[in-house]
């Protein structure tokens, strides 16, 4: 093991190399110094070129950091990841055809790192069958055409599956907190474990080079052995960045690291308006003892709503990054959590999800179709990807999808005295459409699996059954013929027992 600067660590990376990158979302254990140094090398020397990068989770601050740094034409040939929502430059480059982009399920990529470490042929999974990541339906391709997609369709005993081929990395860019002089790495200060060990093993077993960014180096033998996440014999180079932040927006957080607990009363309130309202209504689906996942967007507010309603301790909230219990974070810090009970390596969290361990999942939607398909991956010309959405939505027994009925300029008002909701300005875009642009969740297959599906909006709630969507709740003051039907691009049924949404939800939100 040797200690190098970030520039020295990336200086020998060759063109056409395959690089696996650790980290999650908004800077959680992201080796930012290495990505910055790689960008600087390319802008200075035009080398390396035509890299393939693989990272299960989206990486970036939605502006300039993370994977966004690698957007420059010629630097990347191919990106395989869960989402590019955090790195808009990658999505834009893919849309121009400057690179190949495959956005595939975060959990499948995470598990594939473990299978690649063992040099197995790949990962066989049913996750994603019937969605746009299915090789029969495009294989997750979002950019330039490719003659070597990362997956293929397979049939086992008459059932459809997807095979993700094993990865052979030339380099791994990883992050920890502390390294000792031998190269053992611990992650005690990180908000996320991810699949750092699996990436290191996969790279080492395929003859590649493992580079780990850390905050400090300590004498050999001073890291407690049980806290070592990456053992020394897997590590080639250490890059020390003393001021590496816990996340992009949180410089240091012992709470995200699990080193201290916070008072629930000190947490920020739910946002006012539709976001808070929808989160509060979604949280009404929580049941005592339920193990749940909270997705991004509006659904991150469910944790705050649960705390507000005093039911947080009666349920177990999890996120796909491996945090179990406590209160998942929101905003750019989403993927972290406070007061959690356990942090698992990400592949094991997805094993639990894929196996049906979730009682309820709270997820967002961009588009919903007449048959209950959901799109979050590509819409309005914007490439997003799916992150853990496919694993979560397919594996949970019940899924509560959240979003506004229309988008783009929507404004509603609540008359507290009259206890009535009114639409002041309707959104410019319909979200409930005859057919979605991409299928991120298959309504018909969910019915075959026996899942319970709800769609929660600011003015109504739909359920899904074999015949499509049924209206089951309507906000006080909302007229179905005037305020709902014209803004839904298909016919829907109205339940015989359709009921009003609870006015208390609106009193608390407006």
UniProtKB/TrEMBL annotation:
Give the range the annotation lists for the signal sequence. Answer: none
Q: Where is the active site?
A: 320
Is the keyword Transferase in the record?
A: yes
Gene Ontology molecular functions? CoA-transferase activity
Write out the GO biological process terms. ketone body catabolic process
Alphabetically sorted, this entry's keywords are: Transferase
As for family, the record states: Belongs to the 3-oxoacid CoA-transferase family.
State the PANTHER family in the record: ACETATE COA-TRANSFERASE YDIF
Q: What is this protein called?
A: 3-oxoacid CoA-transferase
Originating species: Cryptosporangium phraense
